[in-house]
Design brief:
The protein is an alpha+beta fold. Helix content is 47%, strand content 15%. The strands form seven sheets. Strands 1-3-2-4-6-5 form a six-stranded mixed beta sheet. A six-stranded mixed beta sheet has the order 7-10-9-8-11-12, with helices on both faces. The chain has a five-stranded antiparallel beta sheet with strand order 21-22-18-25-26.
């Protein structure tokens, strides 16, 4: 082939002979050393018969020009498939394996005719698999691979370097990944200019006991940062790895595939030596140290008292919306290719030594990422916050996870039996009503969105928003005037079943450990929309679950150890108070301060309702719903169960502060849409400061590039502005600040000299903390919790003290202290 025209003509002839639909051929410079291989043309490319035009092409050329000073004329451009795979309609024209194999052969043949080809920018998973045989572009993006491509002019093969990137069409759909795409294009620039230098990592395997002593002693004496990482097999610690350089690691593996590596005495000595190393002054870094620390403490009784650094936590602080796994981090902070698939490859008839080598790579890449992030944290002004809050908190969350909470096993088992029968009964009732509604005998699985969509929209012809069958849309269907009585009964029956089944499956069946304690893993990285808030989930060994969202009827299962009680505080209206101060809403500040100083007789939500609905404060009900049985009589025009104006005002304050619209307000509160629209107008008319606050936050972010919460945590917008992005902007400071505030209380208490030695914070429940303390020390510990919880914030130079409402458990009729028996405590008893 002598030029692009000849190559394209021959390519089309070959496609025609094979029955391949040739809709968009190659373009660009035939003699270039650079090629771009995409997946398949989109509708614009097919229409213009040119690859990489349209929106995705515009993004690619913009980033290539900025990062590499290259433009379209510098590349040979093609796709694996020369036909459109995703049509403009919702119907996908699938590409089967046979056709994909033909396209793969074709693109390799095509590339083999480019006389000067040296570098290929690979865009998307189909292109990755066609050129390298590897799958999973989310894993391999950022990696540089060397392949051999046929040289048809000489009949030999020549080396070509691949730089793997996401398809720009995907980046357009996931705007947060644009910064990653830009980074990967910069990787291409490094490669073509000879600045890409991956390193070979070697791992020292099966070291002797003496060698381990020497290695750890050298690490202690050097003062260098040392990374550590563990691997587990079958519920046991398989190995513990260390690295004090980015190229060399040591893996202490305790067994081969079939034998123990060390004698019992040697292993005992090694474990003790590792424990003494962790307790030394060595600066230890890890990736997701929560895993290593909780696992080793729980299963091996090896305690890591402090971490110097954690790459997952550092990356989350720098870039909350991005992935934080080590594979992704390695691609961002090293030149080393993706390797995380090696974790399991050895199991398929391989050598277990490959697993230990993998452990060494984890250690070395973690150390390399640590060095990169340390520099980045310092440049971003986040170094102090990271070490003095994020890392300090980690060590205390480990304690909370390992400590857990005792469970009343007999009560849990009894509840499981009762609910199993109840859930079965509710399922039968749902099936009966569904069959009556459709007029035939059929089985519908209420847990199947597909079957529920068929039931509600195809068979019962209900009207909702789209074809979702979640609780929100079921509520829309229920309220729609065309919904029949029997269909409403079906919806009610499904709601009842789903509620009880969730409680049964999520809470009652949750596994507990052999010591009858329930545990959870507390994470600092899983709440992307409000970084700073903790999340909780199942432990890394499979027991426990989310202990933050336990329903109140699960509280009795959680009991204090013999001789201990529960202590508790809950920050009062924390986010709303913060918004009042940050948005400079003077009426709110006055009301909240009056409520704080006179908590027994003044309520800020009642005051807001009085202002919104123009009624005297003393006429505003102090409760949320009318209930004749409880003496809460509805006025004229209202019925039992209706919301009071206090409830409406409270829900407005909790939702409308963050740009919620009237439609969403109606859904979240259950208000009729007209009443929600009226409340929306009244609320914003009363508080014009809110919109000015939104504008100020957006302005600050646009002009300064970042927002910071009151403790120094950073927010950067990593996507294009949209309604959803603007909600994140306005919610960041209040939600993030309060999250960090509650978390601070954990380590401030544990590190307080007055804190009782037998007390500990046990549970985080969003704006509340629950601790466990001996009976005779409970009020001392609780007073310390409250003091630290009420530590003032300073917002625009004005002091904000958020009241912490204290509580302490009382014994039940059997003398047992339960989560459910926590009662509010008069603050004067803590003086």
């Amino acid at each position: 082939m002598r030029n692009l025209k000849e190559l394209a003509s021959e390519l089309k002839q070959r496609c025609d002979q094979l029955g391949l639909d040739y809709q968009c051929g190659p373009d660009g410079t035939f003699f270039s050393q650079f090629a771009i291989v995409g997946e398949a043309p989109g509708p614009t490319e097919v229409e213009q018969r040119l690859p990489l035009v349209g929106g995705s092409g515009a993004l690619l050329w913009r980033v290539l020009n900025r990062r590499c000073n290259l433009s379209r004329k510098d590349f040979y451009i093609t796709n694996v498939s020369k036909r459109q795979v995703m049509l403009t309609t919702e119907k996908r024209k699938a590409i089967n394996k046979h056709e994909l194999d033909l396209w793969t052969d074709m693109v390799l043949w095509e590339l083999g005719h480019l006389p000067n080809l040296k570098y290929i920018l690979v865009l998307g998973g189909m292109a990755l698999e066609a050129l390298s045989g590897k799958s999973g572009i989310a894993d391999w993006r950022g990696s540089v691979l060397d392949i051999l491509v046929a040289d048809h002019s000489s009949g030999t093969k020549r080396p070509v370097r691949l730089v793997c990137c996401n398809n720009p069409a995907f980046v357009i759909r996931e705007p947060r990944m644009e910064i990653v795409f830009s980074f990967d294009i910069n990787r291409f620039n490094e490669v073509i200019h000879g600045r890409h230098h991956p390193v070979a990592i070697s791992t020292e395997l099966y070291p002797t006991s003496k060698r381990i002593d020497e290695y750890l002693t050298d690490c202690e004496r050097s003062g260098d940062i040392v990374s550590t990482d563990i691997e587990t097999i079958g519920g046991q610690t398989a190995c513990i790895g260390f690295a004090n350089s980015t190229t060399n690691a040591m893996c202490v593996a305790f067994r081969t595939k079939s034998d123990h590596v060390y004698s019992a005495d040697e292993e005992r000595h090694i474990r003790r030596r590792i424990q003494s190393f962790y307790k030394s002054s060595a600066r230890i870094t890890a990736q997701k140290g929560m895993f290593d620390a909780t696992w080793l403490w729980f299963f091996d009784r090896i305690h890591i008292p402090t971490f110097f650094f954690d790459t997952m936590l550092a990356h989350h602080l720098l870039y909350p919306p991005l992935p934080h796994n080590l594979g992704f981090i390695t691609s961002m902070y090293t030149h080393n290719p993706y390797y995380k698939n090696e974790r399991s490859e050895w199991k398929e008839g391989g050598n277990i030594d490959e697993f230990w080598d993998y452990n060494g790579k984890d250690c070395c890449n973690t150390l390399a990422a640590t060095f990169g992030m340390m520099k980045e944290l310092k440049e971003a002004g986040l170094e102090d916050f990271y070490h003095n809050h994020v890392m300090k908190l980690l060590n205390h969350l480990v304690l909370m996870t390992v400590g857990g909470v005792l469970i009343d096993v007999q009560m849990k088992d009894k509840l499981r039996e009762e609910l199993h029968a109840k859930v079965g009964k509710l399922l039968n009732e749902f099936q009966k009503l569904a069959n009556e509604a459709v007029g035939e005998l059929m089985f519908f699985n209420p847990n199947s969105p597909k079957q529920m969509s068929d039931l509600y929209f195809n068979r019962l012809k209900l009207v909702g928003r789209g074809v979702k069958t979640d609780e929100e849309n079921r509520d829309r269907m229920f309220k729609h005037p065309r919904t029949s009585d029997i269909a409403r009964q079906v919806l009610v029956a499904q709601n009842a079943y789903m509620k009880e089944n969730k409680f049964f499956g999520t809470y009652v069946k949750t596994g507990i450990d052999e010591d009858n304690r329930m545990r959870c893993e507390y994470s600092q990285t899983n709440v992307q929309e409000a970084p700073g808030r903790l999340s909780s989930s199942q432990t890394l060994w499979g027991s426990g679950g989310n202990l933050q969202n336990q329903p109140s009827r699960a509280y009795p299962m959680f009991i204090a150890d013999d001789g201990y009680v529960f202590i508790y505080f809950d920050l009062s209206q924390a986010e709303a108070r913060y918004v009042g101060w940050d948005a400079k809403i003077e009426s709110w500040i006055e009301q909240f301060e009056r409520a704080r100083l006179d908590p027994g007789s003044y309520d800020a939500h009642c005051a807001l309702a009085a202002d919104m609905f123009h009624i005297p404060y003393h006429e505003v009900p102090s409760f949320d719903h009318y209930d004749t049985a409880k003496g809460r009589l509805p006025p004229t025009g209202k019925r039992d169960g209706d919301f009071t104006v206090r409830y409406i005002a409270k829900r407005c304050r909790h939702g409308l502060n963050y740009r919620m619209g009237p439609d969403t307000l109606a859904i979240k509160t259950g208000l009729p849409i007209r009443e929600a629209e009226k409340s929306y107008r009244l609320y914003h008319k009363l508080t014009p400061e809110l919109r000015r606050w939104w504008q100020r936050l957006e302005h600050d972010l646009t002009h300064e590039g970042a927002l910071f919460n009151s403790y120094g945590r950073r927010f950067i917008l990593m996507e294009r502005k949209s309604d959803e992005a603007l909600e994140s902007i306005v919610a960041f400071r209040p939600q993030s600040t309060i999250g960090d505030k509650v978390s601070r209380v954990i380590y401030l208490c544990h590190e307080d000299d007055r804190w009782p030695s037998h007390a500990r914070v046990a549970l985080n429940n969003h704006d509340a903390l629950i601790g466990i303390a001996r009976k005779d020390q409970a009020k001392t510990a609780l007073s310390i919790m409250v003091r630290h919880a009420e530590e003032p914030l300073y917002i625009h130079g004005r002091e904000l003290i958020i009241p912490a409402e204290p509580g302490i458990s009382e014994p039940d009729e059997h003398g047992i202290h339960r989560w459910s028996t926590i009662k509010k405590l008069d603050r004067r008893e803590l003086q």
